[in-house]
Design brief:
about 160 residues; alpha+beta; Sufe protein. Chain: A; four-stranded mixed β-sheet; binds zinc ion
Length: about 160
Amino acid sequence: MTLGNLRDLYQQVILEHYKKPKHKGKTNPVHRYQRGHNPSCGDTIELTLQLNETGDRIEDVKFDGQGCAIAIASADLMAGALRGKSTSEALAMVQRFQEMMKGQGEFPQEQRKLNVMQGVSQFPVRIKCATLTWHTLKAALESSSGNHLEGFVSNEKEEA
Ligand code: ZN
C-alpha cells in the first residue's frame, strides 16, 4: 500500500467516525462532565464519563458537541478506546496522544485504532482539533465530581 492510499484510508476512517459517531450522547449516570473548546477552529466538545464505584475506572464515555471532522472523529475514537481503562491508564493515553501529535511514537496494537489520527501531526493547524477531546478528558479526570457543572476547558493558551 502506498503512502497516498494509506492517507486516503485514514481520511475515510475519520470521515466515517464523523458522519456516524458511535459514542455520541451522554453517559447515564454522569460522574464527570467537562466542556472543551478550541477557539482556533470553533470545535466544542461536551464529554461525560461514567466511572466505577471506586471512581478509578472508566465504564463509559460519551461526547456531544459540534466541530470539524477531525475533532469529532478524534472524540469518537477516544471514547471507544477508553472503556474499561483505569483513570491512570487514560491519563497515560492523553500523554501518548500528545506525543503522537508531535510525531513521536504511536499507540500499541490493542489501541491501534487511535493511530488513524497520526496523519494529523503533519497539519499543525489541525492538531488542536485532534487533541481537544484529550485535553477535555484530562480536565474531566482531574476535576472532582463536586464541581462538574462548572467544567470548562479551553485550549486557547496551549501550545499545539
Ligand atoms: Zn477543528
